[in-house]
Amino acid sequence: QVKLVESGGGSVQPGGSLRLSCAASGFIYSTYCMAWFRQAQGGEREGVAYINSYATTYYADSVKGRITISQDNAKNTLYLQMNSLKPEDTAMYYCAAKAGTWCGGVQSFGYWGQGTQVIVSS
């Protein structure tokens, strides 16, 4: 069974930083895409950053230059380093994974974590 567990969320002031982690277990695919999605209160779930097994990355325009996705395969952990945070970054952040290097959208991902809350306010 694939299990994804996010951590690292919290409350920060605008301009602050957070590093989210996603610990993966039971994920045995050699080709994959992993991603961070976020969903604001009352909003739709949107993709923030993606990385596949070839280390190809993609970022939403709204976070480019401020957020970096990375993976530590030895630790089976996915990271999302978030800097220069803005109030509009406030959302529940979800780790997601799928087999295959094609990342696609939210409906393409079959494995999800429980989410970790990020609140950016003064």
Q: What does it look like?
A:
The chain is mostly beta strands. Helix content is 0%, strand content 51%. The protein has no helices and 11 strands. It has strands at residues 3-7, 10-12, 18-25, 32-39, 46-52, 57-59, 67-72, 77-82, 91-99, 111-112, 116-120. Strands 2, 4, 5, 6, 9, 10 and 11 form a 7-stranded mixed sheet that branches. The mean pLDDT is 96.
Order of helices and strands: EEEEEEEEEEE
Approximately how much helix is present in the residues? under 10%
| Shape, per Cα inertia axes | globular
Question: Structural class of the secondary elements?
Answer: mainly beta
Write the layout of secondary structure elements.
Layout: E1 3-7, E2 10-12, E3 18-25, E4 32-39, E5 46-52, E6 57-59, E7 67-72, E8 77-82, E9 91-99, E10 111-112, E11 116-120
Parallel strand pairs: 2-11
Antiparallel strand pairs: 1-3, 3-8, 4-5, 4-9, 5-6, 7-8, 9-10, 9-11
Short account of what is shown:
With 122 residues, this protein is mainly beta. The protein has strands at residues 3-7, 10-12, 18-25, 32-39, 46-52, 57-59, 67-72, 77-82, 91-99, 111-112, 116-120. The protein is built from no helices and eleven strands.
What structural keywords apply?
seven-stranded mixed beta sheet, 0% helix, globular, 51% strand, 122 residues, mainly beta, four-stranded antiparallel beta sheet
